[in-house]
Design brief:
Number of domains: 2
Largest sheet: 8 strands, mixed
CATH superfamily of the largest domain: ANL, N-terminal domain
CATH topology of the largest domain: Rossmann fold
Radius of gyration: 24 Å
Bound molecules: adenosine monophosphate
Oligomer: single chain
Strand order of the largest sheet: 2-1-11-10-12-13-14-15
Shape: globular
Strand content: 15-25%
């Protein structure tokens, strides 16, 4: 027997209809590329997204076309997403921090038909447009007054384009499995691969991220996604915030500590989200200025491991609750969030702190397990660690154009490439990226654990640990540190600080100091670059072993 409920497709633009009807006057505040702060409401966002949707045909854009975007978090970028997705086109976000060759490859592979860009990125696209034959039109997301003198092909002014659009445009009825978004993930081997989101996967993912034990969004929140829209859907906030009717604050191009602080304060932001490097800058700014953080209730930190020292700084110094989160582009991206669940009352404060540091537990709709190299599932005891595999309606089942071939195991699980533990309460803790784990004498050392410990040293601003070849042990850890300004601890000081806090054989064999840790386009420590820089590095322990 079939159920007798309505066939109501899960379409992302229905989120906008909802926000506009029930939270129509809630604000979206954006720092613009042109400079000023721009304010309007969900009603305006809805109307202007429809204006765009009603005119894209003029650019030859139709159902199924892939359209590139390169833009900061801002109101026009949201309009472009909703306007394109609403007519069945696919918004393909490009990360401006990628190298020109990567951008060429990705845009050509995706066959972007048109391209929407912020003023900031005109020079980037001008420099590579000759290698991008599929793009027919470049739409510059600004008004006539700010249109640059540009060589971009068929350069079109966004405001002029949508001026005659229909704010009452009726969205076409689409199948919920229609593709709506695309984001390439770089991985470390082979070419970048395209992850293709559907309306259904994005709506389900947004619903589960709103849940009380996940991000717990409310219409009374003021949410600032600092995580860019070009990095895995801005962790769904572009969908989940309107779904809940929260005020949105979009930081645009400025993400330094002072600019982020200014918006947190003036807009009374209650919830924000980004990778640890952003929060490092904010915390440094707060330390320098001795400024308070009275409105911010919670901060979601993910994308790479959040050092416990950062959690402590937010919670103890500012009373801001940290939600450590883990995920990946292939998962839309949220996989786990660390919030306390019911039934933990018997745990001591120390035991709860051990949980707090973990990456968290999956919301409904994410299944996970860890397996050994033989593929057999490992116990959920918080000790055994293995390959982390996931399954769910917002997890990729293949890459665009089937790059990389079959990516699921026989039970439909996707191997994340991360190594983790799972504990008896369901909390997951990332040990390492499988390729970054240090293999010493047949045992594994977690580079993340060592980094977390090193940054707890009061003089260390940022730390990275890589494995260096060793004749006896195969690999041994090298700790690379960036020091806080005006400090100069010795290698021995750092080693002494770490001594006794980890197993002796985990201790780094050496400490190197550098001015800046290299980061990838998505803000992670670039271990690839560090391994390259330190490829000829000889550990002091090597001579001793020879
Ligand atoms: P991306 O697809 O660029 O978002 O990268 C996903 C990868 O980032 C994951 O597979 C992890 O290796 C890493 N990652 C994301 N969040 C965390 C976290 N909270 N702790 C440790 N690693 C993380």
């Amino acid at each position: 027997m079939e159920g007798l409920m309505q066939d109501w497709p899960l379409l992302v633009h229905t989120v906008l209809d909802h926000a506009s009807t029930y939270h129509g006057d809630r604000e979206i505040v954006s720092r613009t590329v042109e400079g000023p702060i721009h304010r309007y409401t969900y009603k305006d966002l809805n109307a202007r997204s429809k204006q765009l949707a009603s005119v894209v045909e003029k650019l030859g854009i139709k159902h199924g076309d892939v359209i590139g975007t390169m833009a900061w978090n801002g109101y026009r970028h949201m309009e472009v997403w909703y306007g394109l997705m609403g007519v069945g086109a696919i918004a393909h976000t490009l990360n401006p921090r990628l190298f020109a060759e990567q951008l060429d490859y990705i845009i050509n592979h995706a066959e972007d038909k048109a391209f929407f860009l912020d003023l900031t990125f005109v020079p980037i696209l001008e420099a590579i447009q000759d290698k991008l034959p599929t793009i027919e039109t470049f739409v510059i997301m600004t008004d006539e007054d700010h249109m640059p003198d540009t060589s971009l092909r068929n350069a079109t002014c966004y405001e002029t384009l949508i001026a005659d659009g229909d704010p009452e445009f009726a969205w076409p009825r689409l199948d919920e499995n229609t593709a709506c978004g695309m984001c390439y993930t770089s991985g470390t081997t082979g070419n970048p691969k395209g992850v293709v989101y559907s309306h259904r996967s994005n709506v389900l993912h947004a619903l589960s991220s709103c849940a009380g034990d996940a991000v717990a969004l409310k219409s009374t929140d003021a949410i600032m996604p600092v995580v860019p829209m070009f990095h895995a859907n801005a962790w769904s906030f572009v969908y989940s915030s309107p779904m809940c009717g929260a005020k949105m604050v979009m930081p645009g191009p400025l993400m330094d500590g002072a600019s982020i602080y200014e918006l947190l304060e003036t807009e009374k932001v209650t919830l924000t989200a980004a990778v640890p490097t952003i929060w490092l800058m904010l915390l440094q700014h707060l330390e320098e200025t001795k400024a308070p953080l009275p409105h911010l209730e919670r901060v979601v930190i993910g994308g790479s491991a959040c050092p416990p020292a950062m959690i402590e700084a937010f919670e103890k110094n500012y009373g801001t609750d940290v939600i450590h989160a883990w995920g990946m582009t292939e998962m839309s991206p949220l996989g786990t969030l660390c919030t306390f669940k019911g039934g933990l009352d018997h745990l001591s404060e120390d035991e709860l702190w051990e949980i707090k540091k973990k990456q968290g537990r999956p919301p409904y709709s994410v299944e996970m397990k860890i397996t050994g190299d033989d593929g057999n599932e490992l116990p959920r005891d918080g000790v055994a660690f293995g390959n982390l595999k996931v399954r769910g309606p917002a997890v990729a089942r293949a890459y665009f154009k089937n790059e990389g071939g079959e990516i699921l195991d026989e039970d439909g699980f996707f191997d994340t490439g991360d190594v983790s533990t799972l504990d008896e309460y369901g909390y997951m803790n990332i040990t390492d990226r499988s390729k970054d784990v240090i293999k010493s004498g047949g045992e594994w050392i977690s580079s993340i654990d060592l980094e977390n410990l090193a940054v707890a040293h009061p003089d260390v601003a940022e730390a990275a640990v890589i494995g260096i070849a060793h004749p006896k042990w195969d690999e041994r850890p090298l700790l690379i540190c960036v020091l806080k300004e005006g400090t100069s601890p010795s290698k021995e000081d750092i080693i002494e600080f770490m001594t006794g806090k980890i197993a002796k054989w985990w201790m780094p064999d050496d400490v190197a100091f550098i001015d800046e840790i290299p980061h990838t386009a998505t803000g992670k420590i670039s271990k690839l670059t560090l391994r390259e820089t330190f490829k000829d590095y000889e550990l002091p322990t090597v001579q001793a072993a020879e």
